[in-house]
Specification:
single chain, 1021 residues, alpha+beta, 14% helix, 32% strand
């Protein structure tokens, strides 16, 4: 404790000091100068300026102790013309005080000059101080001087300027899910939630040589636009280092045959060693090179695809007659010798659009109108139409008219059961949609139908059409106008495509497999700029050649062999080696389709042209027409035919690059090999990806225009390393010799690259020589030409370029330079069949006697008969809520949670994943328990729709449980099993016979998964 007396003494001493300071500053200055000032201004140690100065030296005397002169005290000069002197007069309140101080002219001028300079600097200092006080230090916009470092980076100092905005949202989220099927530790998740929106632009410079630019935008549409970074150093004109950049850089080669790169991220430098210029880059490529071409001002696009890539599920023959006569009708192009003229047609498809304006119930039959080839049992041909398709060509239509019940959609399946096969011989469509005339096209002479939109595999197509042949009218199917008075009745039409398009289906051959599409966006093809060639990939040469070296067609172009080159440019029957462009028959110009003149160009037609069956067996590709497209693509030893060419779909000066947000500066346009100048000969819209040719001379001359660009794709996941070196030695200002080397290496996405998608490792080098000079004598010679008046010197230029590509592929530690045809790691996918709501009561199982097997349940043949379900026993299927069988859950009722027998019952307990898959690694986020589909079968209890009271005993139980059955069935959403490559369907169940005390009474438990063969189910577990 400090004594109070000491505290009081300290306060008194501090008070005395304050009083002394106040008295010192409050003392009047005039009294001091009146009594204590000596005669001169320098007599005091700290002189004080008097109010009324006695000489001009007093005016220049200043001291820190001087108070500010009051505003009432002013000084002014008054000129005395009598003496020629300037008198400095002091006034107080407008009245003169003291003695004026005389100034000569020289003294007055010196005073005014000195005073003006002083006031100018004082004002500047005050203004700068005011600005600095208002501005303060801004961390987003500041700068400072470099001092001696300016000799390296140049004047200007360091300047940093930042613009943009930043918004950060922070929060905490906690999710709680009371789901008994999830482990307890996985039911609650608490985590931080951060959301940021940043748009920033940083511009920094160090002197005049070093610049730094950074753009960062989290809301950018494209990922490659979100971050842009560049650090650049620019040297002096006579320095070795001309440019040194890091970040987003580019390299432009002087050799036009070697494209550099505009979308690179790395280090770029330009050096100068005397007459040698060195341009070097080490970077990663963020784009891929793309090229497009035009001919005569219109864009020319190349295409290439395999023979098995036909336009699937869009083009159909109207029957076997039109398919069988297709080759003969097309053999006389440009004239068609079919004799058929289709007058009208109605096309019906499965209604998936919900448009019921003109919807009708239809029943489509495969054999409708077939005069020779019928597949359904009981349908016979009568020969009344001489092989022409018509309703009277076979017995089907007349039989249908004798069955009035078939006009009701709910009676069709029962009436046709046992006679026609559903989905094969016929297909029933409720509320089918009739296509408008603009949704399809019909070739009224060939009898082919082309849809505008490709159908799904499970959609059904039915048609009714009328045609004229040799003056007589025939009809196949029924038109909606034929039964306009009874719109609720079914229409009988021709089935062209069913829901199961398999090679065994009788309508398999109705689909055209000789039509190829150039793309959905291709339209308005031009005959004069369309090229198509057919190539065969020869294993011995390793290249694609346009001919076959064996058989009668050895050495002939495949285009001619396949019947696509029979005419010349004037449509005369003289082959000229060019694809026959016949609109409507070999080409659908408006929709970009190529149509072959034979039904099976790479199958039976090619074998017929080769002539020798043994030789034809090595070349024909029958799998295109005998199997599905997916299955045909798997036959690699046959997949060797290639369709290659180019097309021109428009005629304008605008070229579409096929890409958006093209890298600025990456577009290079050449016309006839000469490089064009941007904004002079052409303009580029980098955002929309279009090039517009401005030079009309290029468009009018028909010169081929080539455009190369770099396209930064949306999903550019492969890392690409680019090394580039461009050397140019200037012997003279007009003579330059250069050399370029580029190296590109791709890192594979996986350790097992797929065949055809290998990562490349290419090297490219080249040389270039350019010489340019002016010649006046050439101008004089050309000036002699009449109508020319030349005065400026002519320019003579010589450019020579050479480039060599050294291809290669990546060879890493794991790839070893190999490619994998298929590693079967991702070739399987599962279909979940555990949802009980997708299952329904099964129909009575039935075996076709044609299969050679005895009827398992004869009552399955009955239609509209109560005996159909006589032996159906009770079957229940369900799933148990995990809250009822989980011991560790608080949601489980106490009477179940405390009952060990109930929790361990194999019919109701939960099944852990490890019981079925003991070696599977469990993930923290996955469920450790399986959701099981439970079945309870009671063979001695009557099932639904079993009204057979004769087999019920006195106790209410069925008397013969071993002869009963129970079944369930469901639809599998995969409609094309062969295309999906489904090899087996696997069942797993906890074997009930392990526990004899709970085993059910013997009976049959059936699973109906649709039309799945026994071979498919042979792996059942």
């Amino acid at each position: 404790m400090i004594p109070r007396r000491r505290i009081l003494c300290a306060w008194l001493a501090l008070l005395c000091a304050l009083v002394g300071v106040v008295r010192l500053f409050a003392m009047p200055p005039l009294s001091v100068s009146a009594t204590a000032l000596p005669a001169g201004p320098d007599s005091l140690r700290y002189p004080v300026q008097p109010t009324a100065p006695e000489s001009y030296e007093w005016l220049e005397q200043e001291s820190a102790l001087d108070l500010r002169t009051p505003s009432v005290v002013t000084h002014e000069f008054v000129f005395n013309p009598a003496t020629g002197l300037y008198l400095l007069v002091t006034k107080v309140g407008g009245k003169q005080v003291g003695t004026p101080i005389p100034y000569t002219l020289e003294q007055y001028v010196a005073y005014v000059e000195r005073n003006g300079v002083q006031n100018y600097f004082l004002e500047r200092a005050a203004q700068d101080e005011k600005e600095q006080q208002g501005k303060g230090f801004n961390p987003f916009d500041f700068g400072f001087e470099l001092g001696p470092a300016e000799k390296i980076f140049g004047p200007g100092g360091v300047r940093v300027r930042t613009q943009g905005s930043a918004e950060v949202s922070m929060g905490v989220k906690s999710n709680a899910t009371d789901n008994p099927s999830i482990p307890i530790r996985s039911r609650r998740h608490t985590f931080f939630d951060f959301d940021q929106k940043i748009q920033a632009n940083v511009q920094a410079s160090v002197g005049t040589k070093l610049n730094f630019n950074l753009n960062y935008n989290t809301q950018a549409t494209f990922d490659f636009d979100s971050k842009k970074l560049k650090l650049a150093y620019e040297g002096e004109e006579d320095g070795i280092i001309k440019v040194l950049e890091a970040g987003n850089v580019s390299l432009q080669s002087k050799n036009s045959l070697i494209q550099g790169g505009a979308s690179l991220f790395g280090i770029h430098s330009k050096l100068q060693f005397g007459k040698l210029d060195v341009d070097f880059v080490v970077s990663q490529q963020e784009a891929e090179t793309k090229r497009v071409s035009t001919d005569r001002g219109a864009q020319t696009t190349p295409f290439e695809f395999s023979a098995n890539q036909y336009d699937e599920n869009r083009h159909f023959y109207l029957g076997h007659y039109f398919r069988d006569h297709y080759n003969k009708a097309m053999s006389t192009l440009p004239f068609i010798s079919s004799g058929v003229k289709i007058n009208r047609i109605e096309v019906w498809v499965t209604n998936k659009r919900g448009n019921f304006d003109e919807a009708r119930n239809i029943v489509a039959f495969t054999d409708m109108g077939e005069a020779e080839r019928v597949t359904a049992r009981g349908v016979t041909t009568n020969g009344s139409t001489q092989g022409l398709p018509a309703n009277q060509a076979n017995s089907l239509y007349s039989w249908l008219l004798g069955q009035p019940a078939l006009r009701q959609v709910d009676q069709v399946s029962q009436m046709l059961e046992g006679q026609l096969r559903g989905g094969v011989d016929y297909a029933k469509i409720e509320s089918a949609r009739r296509l408008n005339a603009n949704e399809y096209r019909i070739n009224d002479q060939l009898g082919t139908l082309s849809l505008q939109v490709r159908l799904q595999p499970d959609e059904v197509v039915g048609v009714a059409f009328e045609y004229t042949y040799q003056g007589k009218v025939y009809q196949v199917g029924e038109f909606s106008s034929d039964r306009s008075d009874r719109t609720a009745d079914n229409l009988f039409v021709k089935l062209l495509k069913g829901s199961s398009m398999t090679p065994t289906a009788p309508y398999w051959q109705f689909m055209m497999r000789n039509v190829y599409s150039l793309g959905s966006s291709v339209y308005n093809l031009k005959a004069e700029h369309f090229k198509l060639d057919v190539f065969y990939r020869n294993d011995s040469t390793g290249t694609a050649i346009p001919y076959i070296n064996e058989g009668k067609v050895a050495g002939q172009l495949l285009t001619r062999v396949l019947g696509m080159d029979r005419l010349d440019s004037r449509n005369e029957p003289h082959p000229d080696g060019v694809f026959d462009f016949v609109p409507g028959y070999t080409v659908d110009a408006e929709r970009g389709l190529v149509i072959f003149t034979s039904t099976e160009p790479f199958g039976s037609y090619l074998a017929e042209q080769i002539g020798d069956p043994a030789i034809a067996e090595r070349y024909v590709y029958r799998e295109i027409y005998d199997t599905t497209m997916v299955a045909a693509q798997q036959v690699a030893e046959r997949d060797k035919f290639i369709l290659r060419g180019e097309y021109q779909a428009a005629n304008s000066g605008q070229i579409s690059l096929g890409a958006m947000n093209v890298t600025p500066g990456s577009v290079r346009v050449t016309a006839g090999g000469a490089t064009l100048v941007e904004n002079v000969d052409y303009t580029v819209n980098y955002a929309m990806g279009t090039v517009t040719i401005l030079n009309e001379a290029i468009l009018n001359s028909g010169t081929r225009v080539d455009v190369s660009l770099e396209n930064r794709g949306f999903l550019n996941l492969q890392r690409k390393t680019v090394l580039g070196l461009d050397l140019n030695y200037h012997f003279t200002p007009d003579l330059t010799l250069g050399g370029t080397f580029m190296y590109l290496s791709e890192m594979p996405l996986t350790a097992k690259p797929v065949m055809g998608r290998e990562s490349m490792q290419n090297s490219l080098w080249g040389l270039n020589l350019s010489w340019r000079t002016e010649s006046q004598w050439l101008t004089r010679i050309l000036d002699y030409i009449p109508l020319l008046d030349l005065t400026k010197p002519s320019e003579v230029a010589l450019n020579m370029e050479f480039a060599h590509l050294i291809p290669g592929h990546y060879e890493g530690r794991y790839t070893k330079g190999h490619s994998y045809i298929d590693d079967f790691e991702t070739s399987q996918s599962s279909i979940d069949l555990l949802n009980p709501y997708a299952w329904m009561l099964s129909s009575t199982p039935w075996h076709d006697p044609a299969d050679g097997a005895a009827d398992l349940f004869p009552e399955a043949r009955l239609v509209n008969d109560l005996r159909y379900g006589n032996r159906r026993a009770l079957l229940n299927w369900f799933y148990i809520d995990p809250m009822l069988n989980r011991a560790g859950s608080s949601l489980t009722p106490s009477y179940l949670r405390n009952n060990p027998d109930m929790l361990s019952n194999h019919y109701s307990r939960e099944v852990r994943m490890s019981e079925l898959f003991p070696y599977r690694d469990e993930n923290f986020a996955q469920q450790s328990y399986l959701q099981t589909l439970c079945l309870a079968y009671y063979p001695d209890e009557r099932g639904p729709y079993n009204v057979n009271s004769d087999q019920v005993g006195s106790d209410g139980k069925l008397m013969n449980p071993t002869e009963n059955w129970g079944g369930m069935m469901r639809k599998i959403d995969q409609s094309d099993f062969e295309a999906a490559n489904i090899e087996y369907i696997e069942f797993w169940m906890m074997d009930p016979f392990i526990y004899p005390e709970t085993a059910p009474t013997s009976g049959k438990l059936l699973f109906n998964l649709g039309e799945v063969s026994e071979e498919v189910l042979k792996d059942e577990k």
